[in-house]
Amino acid sequence: MFRRLTAVLCVAGAAIVLWASSPAILPWFSRWLDVGERPVKADYVIVLLGDEQTRPFVAAALVKEG
Predict the structure, then answer these.
(1) Domain coordinates in residue numbering, the chain
(2) What pLDDT score does 59 carry?
(3) What is the four-CA torsion angle of 48, 51, 52, 57, rounded to 10 degrees?
(4) How confident is the model at residue 16, as a pLDDT?
(5) Which pLDDT score, from 0 to 100, does residue 1 have?
(6) Contacts of 62 (CB under 8 A, 6+ apart)
(7) Are the C-beta atoms of residues 11 and 3 closer than 8 Å to each other?
(8) Predicted TM-score (pTM) of this structure
(9) SS (H, E, C) the chain
(10) Cβ neighbours of residue 55 closer than 8 Å, sequence gap 6 or more
(11) CB under 8 A, 24+ apart: contacts of 3-6
(12) What is the dihedral of CA 14, 19, 23, 25, to 10 degrees?
């Protein structure tokens, strides 16, 4: 029982620290996820998991564009 309580408190503490530091962390993620540039030519296109109705078509369009 003590281990479970300790684990829950550690997870809750980590969540609070991440939430409190989000103003410092989120700008870094926004720079890392910037999509403001056009895609460059690539040899391969990998379709990751997600919406099966649109992702393959977007990948095919990227391949056609070159």
Answers:
(1) 2-65
(2) 86
(3) -80
(4) 92
(5) 83
(6) 39, 45
(7) no
(8) 0.39
(9) CHHHHHHHHHHHHHHHHHHHCHHHHHHHHHHHCCCCCCCCCCCCCCCCCCCCCCHHHHHHHHHHHC
(10) 47, 48
(11) none
(12) 40
In angstroms, the CA 57 to CA 42 distance is 17
Burial of 59 (C-beta count, 10 Å sphere; 0-12/13-18/19+)? middle
Q: Quick one: tokens of 50? A: 């997600």
The tokens for 11 are 């997870």
pLDDT in tens, 7-43: 999 999 999 988 888 787 778 777 777 778 887 888 8
Q: What is the pLDDT of residue 13?
A: 95
Question: Amino acid identity, residue 35?
Answer: V
